[in-house]
Write a structure and sequence with these properties.
- The protein is of the alpha/beta class.
- The chain is built from seven helices and twelve strands.
- Strands 6, 7, 8, 9, 10, 11 and 12 form a seven-stranded parallel beta sheet that branches. Strands 1-3-4-5-2 form a five-stranded mixed beta sheet.
- Helix 5 links the parallel strand 10 and strand 11.
- Helix 2 runs parallel beside helix 3.
- The structure holds S-adenosyl-L-homocysteine (SAH).
- The site of S-adenosyl-L-homocysteine has 18 residues, from helix 7.
Length: 247
């Protein structure tokens, strides 16, 4: 980012274009006026997840209902690598961590899956999405990953086409190391990572996964990683081998 880039970046739901006026809700107004102490005329950066990043001016600095006016475009929308993350929800704080990191790591779609050993904690999608938005604001990205509602793994698997490789992170560690396994997959090919819950995959799930034509079983090294660690490690390797971490 250059020196003149606005210091504050916010995600907004409004489609951004020159001249658009964005009324802010109470929480956002409070943040900008009372917490960040901005005054009318202040410049910030906005992104909406589809139209890149825009410079905006605080044109009405009312504490309870401020308004931003969109000026010029700072960056065009950059597409994300076509990488999904399927993970079994774990404890709240660790699930928050996974979705936040998925966003920072440039994952396009986050898809919680319920597996046999998934602890049946209900997911609060609004909260998880808020975490992703915050992560996107901080990491300078112009995308917020899509977030699906949780679905049973076997159902997802039954509908899975062959067009997207399903990189199955198998704690059995008998599969080839992930980078070796990905050597034959073309950069940019649609891909998805699958990470199991703390209890790992049930034998019948592993069997179904191994039998599926889209599945590529991989190992993440000799140690058993916690699910949150495994998610970040696998996202990093996927971005190196298939995504935007190298040319
Ligand atoms: N309790 C299980 C481990 C689960 S680890 C056991 O003891 O076998 C949680 C998830 O992280 C796993 O389901 C897998 O998807 C991933 N994972 C952890 N370590 C891994 C490794 N070395 N290789 C591949 N996947 C791994």
């Amino acid at each position: 980012m250059n020196e003149t880039a606005p210091k504050i970046r916010l995600h907004v739901e409004t489609a951004l274009a020159e001249g658009v006026e964005i009324p802010l809700d109470r929480g956002q107004s409070n943040y900008l006026i009372n917490v960040m102490r901005l005054e009318a005329g202040a410049i910030l950066a906005l992104f909406d997840g589809s139209n890149g990043e825009w410079r905006a001016e605080l044109t009405n600095a009312h504490r309870k209902g401020a308004t931003l006016t969109v000026r010029d475009r700072l960056r065009v929308q950059e597409p994300l690598p076509d990488l999904h993350l399927l993970f079994a929800p774990i404890k709240k704080a660790r699930t928050d961590f996974i979705v936040e990191k998925a966003c920072e790591m440039g994952c396009a779609r986050v898809r919680p899956v319920i597996t046999r050993y998934t602890q049946s904690e209900r997911l609060k999608l609004d909260r998880l999405r808020a975490h992703m938005v915050e992560a996107a604001e901080q990491c300078g990205g112009v995308n917020v990953p899509d977030l699906d509602a949780a679905r049973p793994l076997l159902e997802v698997l039954a509908e899975w086409g062959e067009g997207r490789v399903l990189i199955f992170c198998d704690e059995a560690r008998t599969a080839p190391p992930m980078l070796d396994a990905l050597a034959d997959v073309a950069r940019g090919a649609p891909a998805a990572l699958l990470i199991g819950p703390e209890g790992g995959f049930a034998p019948e799930e592993a069997e179904r996964l191994h039998a599926h034509p889209a599945t590529l079983p991989v190992s993440l090294g000799p140690r058993i990683l916690r699910a949150d660690t495994a998610a970040v490690a696998a996202l990093a390797l996927a971005q190196v081998a298939l995504g935007d971490w190298s040319a």
